[in-house]
Amino acid sequence: MKQGKRAILALADGRVFIGRGFGAEGTTTGEVVFNTSLSGYQEILTDPSYHHQIVVMTYPEIGNTGVNPEDTESARPWVRGFVVRSLSPVASSWRSRQTLDAYLREHGVIGLEGIDTRALVRHIRDQGAQMAALSTEDADRASLVDMARRAGSMVGLDLAKEVSTREPYAWTEGSIQPIAGRGAPPAPVRRARKRLRIVAFDFGIKRNILRKLVDRNLDVTVVPATTTAEEVLKRDPDGVFLSNGPGDPEPVTYAIAAVRGLLGKKPIFGICLGHQILGLALGGRTFKLKFGHHGGNQPVMEAYTRKVEITAQNHGFAVDLESFRGRDDLEITHENLNDHTVEGLRHRTLPVYSVQYHPEASPGPHDPDYLFDRFVELIESSKGGREPGSRAGA
């Protein structure tokens, strides 16, 4: 068995796990959460929605496909730490350019392997996600537990501002086909009849979301999280997209105000944090989940068709169903079949809809890819003066 430098993960409730470090050396803190995906660790590492978190992978062996530049979802990893049962010493994929160990070391991310991740995941599931300290330097368990307790909480943290772009930019790249490479035609999609202009709010946007929009003949401009409604309306886009992102949605008051200023003026499609911000802009509430939804195997049912999709998810907060009770103007379109939380909503008269999960996958199943097609349909029906159908954005 490979012998690495001793590393310790200490949870705020006093539970301690000791293993071997890999990647960078040092000490960090973050909320420890688990992800149930079997693969796609590179996309998980570079998803800005994981900012301020230490991610534990439930699948036992990680790293066997290495790292390549095409599968990153942003410019760098955002996780505070990465925990696996067993780190593969071999990267066997023909697409690999670097080992996972080297990649994390290059980007200053601390890794931990050789612990009982099943025991850690069961503990998080039972006790809830919580702050933790991860260190290859400090061997004092009590000191690390105290550090975790002093690290605060994800509740009340506005992290969207920290991961967002500072300046607007245009995105033009479509989907990447692993065999054919960049520029290869994507699978059949619902392309807009003519070029439509989209403003995409960057609360921590993933690259594959942008690729999916470009695939559908949309001209995409990405704007900072702090962009106002007035600034968006000056651009006169055909539609507005609200992206995924990290942290608590309630402190992101500037985005909530911007979305309120756009309601009824432009078609809106939101996912993940964008879905939560839309829910707050429509007068709802959000709350923190016990251990969140992180992985590529969450079952979601669409209310209209009763169709069940397997979805990719990454969020620790959710829209409160009770905050919409008695509202005739809103419809809950999707439900999580594990815990019955809200997974989608739409406005009955305004061209507005959102989902909590990630229809762009990367990693994850492609069942909900059609939601991007619905965005095109929603924009075109709004431009034509027709009311959207009874399904979310149909």
Sum up the structure in keywords.
single chain, 394 residues, ten-stranded mixed β-sheet, globular
* Largest sheet, strands/sense/barrel: 10 strands, mixed
Query: Could you tell me the mean pLDDT?
Result: 93
Evaluate the radius of gyration: 21 Å
Work out the number of β strands. 21
Major beta sheet, strand line-up: 10-14-13-15-16-21-20-19-17-18
Strand content: 25-35%
Gap from first CA to last CA: 55 Å
Low-confidence stretches: 386-394
**Count of DSSP helices?**
10
Principal-axes shape call: globular
**Fraction of residues in H or I helices:** 10-25%
Helix-strand makeup class: alpha/beta
Molecular structure report:
The protein has 394 residues and is of the alpha/beta class. It has helices spanning 41-45, 100-107, 117-127, 141-149, 160-163, 207-215, 229-235, 253-262, 273-281, 370-383; strands at 6-11, 16-23, 27-35, 53-57, 61-62, 81-83, 86-87, 110-113, 130-135, 169-171, 176-177, 181-182, 196-202, 218-224, 239-242, 268-271, 286-302, 308-319, 330-336, 342-347, 352-355. A hairpin with a 3-residue loop joins strand 11 and strand 12. Mean pLDDT is 93; it is low at 386-394.
